[in-house]
Specification:
Blueprint lengths: L1 H4 L4 H8 L5 H8 L4 H11 L3 H6 L19 E4 L1 E3 L4 E3 L5 E4 H6 L7 E5 L14 E5 L7 E7 L5 E7 L5 E4 L8 E3 L7 E11 L4
Antiparallel strand pairs: 1-4, 2-3, 5-6, 6-11, 7-8, 7-11, 8-9, 9-10
């Protein structure tokens, strides 16, 4: 990374990665390779992942070849479009370690990335942040991506009430909570559970 960016200190690398001053030191002490950051860097600088991570082959490649093929230890997560709840691969995709997904109990084919729109969940989710969404978890209370009727999807904190209704609340106190009556539950689509927020890399 230092060679590609033309820097010499861990502090400079941490700043370019968008982390704290000690971010690189923490990675070194743990013996951890920042795979997601490596992939992002490879895309932005047309650098070979084989060269960057494994130290083999030429350093520079052209265009998309910089990130193809995807290493076996990484999983590509497509984006989910909140406008029509369609899984899309024409946006930038996120890559996470396969082992990490397993440790989190997430299925590779049941996890997608979603970009937060609006400020209704401010203090928990900020506009523009990327959330990893578990499409298989839809029953427990928590923060979910939902859609009511045919409108756009949005994040809300779900609480299942004893009378069969569902309370949809915002973490931003400016917005009032909504209650979906039991009779209208079939119009409420619970798309997936907000598992974690991805830190973006500059």
């Amino acid at each position: 990374m230092k060679t590609v960016w033309g820097v010499s200190t861990d502090k400079e690398v941490a700043e370019l990665l968008g982390g704290s001053r000690g971010f690189v030191s923490v990675l070194k002490n743990r013996g951890t390779i920042p795979y997601a950051e490596c992939v992002t860097m490879a895309i932005e600088t047309n650098t070979s992942l084989d060269w960057l991570i494994l130290g083999r082959g030429p350093k520079e490649v052209e265009g998309i070849a910089a990130v193809a093929p995807i290493p076996a230890h990484l999983v590509e997560l497509p984006f989910l479009d909140v406008e029509d709840v369609d899984i899309r691969r024409d946006q930038e995709n996120w890559y996470v370690p396969r082992d990490w997904l397993g440790l989190q109990g997430l299925a590779a084919d049941g996890t997608v990335a979603v970009r937060v729109v609006g400020d209704a969940m401010e203090h928990t989710l900020s506009e523009g942040q990327v959330v990893l969404l578990d499409l298989e978890q839809k029953s427990a209370d928590g923060v979910y991506l939902v859609r009511f009727g045919a409108g756009a999807a949005y994040f809300r904190r779900i609480q299942h009430m004893a009378d069969g209704s569902v309370r949809l609340s915002c973490d931003n106190p400016v917005y009032a909570a909504e209650v979906v009556p039991a009779a209208d539950r079939d119009r409420l689509q619970i798309i997936g559970y907000c598992h974690s927020v991805v830190r973006t890399v500059r």
